Amino acid sequence: MMSADRAVTAPKIGLINPKSASNVAVILRAAACFGLDEIVYTGKRYEYAKGFQEDTKKLRNSIPLSAVDDIFSNIPKDFVSVAVELTEGACPLPEFAHPEKAFYILGPEDGSIPMACIKKCEHVVYIPTQSSMNLAVTANVVLYDRLAKSNYEKGNDLIKASRDRNNNTSI
Question: What range(s) does the tRNA/rRNA methyltransferase SpoU type domain occupy (predicted)?
Fold first, then answer.
């Protein structure tokens, strides 16, 4: 969430052939937490796997999740494509300056973003880890990194608005 004095365009996420409904449900939760307003995906595997039992907040009803044939034909003209992939020559995420209008592209849980897609992207970043991460975790790390590098909203009002109803702790 950004501070009210700075208008910010919500980033978007494109998923290449995701297979796990649970990963997509966690990405929906991340979208709600980090202010995304749209997720698109390619491929048919997710269509066969989705059950949405993992979408406990029913975010699919408020954040569009759309099947598309081509990720790149769904990137708004003024958005910047950013592939997130463990690939040689990519920029480490801690050193990356996120574009204001970013369209993040993430690959499948059991593969990589196709090289033809990577070549179309304006940026390619990777998260420096000791092993590959889960798709949903990757989306959360990228979106958190974007938030951490921004002029985000702070304070108790945000905490109170963000937490679940069963959490009422204070220090």
Answer: 13-144
CATH code for the domain defined by 12-160: 3.40.1280.10
Measured CA distances, 36 to 10, 44, 131 (Å): 5, 23, 27
Cα 51–30–13 angle (5° rounding)? Answer: 85
**Which H/E stretch holds residue 148?**
helix 135-148
Q: What is the dihedral of CA 55, 155, 101, 5, to 10 degrees?
A: 140
pLDDT in tens, 60-104: 667 778 899 999 999 999 999 999 999 999 999 999 999 999 999
Q: For the chain, give every domain's residue range.
A: 12-160
pTM reported for the whole predicted model: 0.86
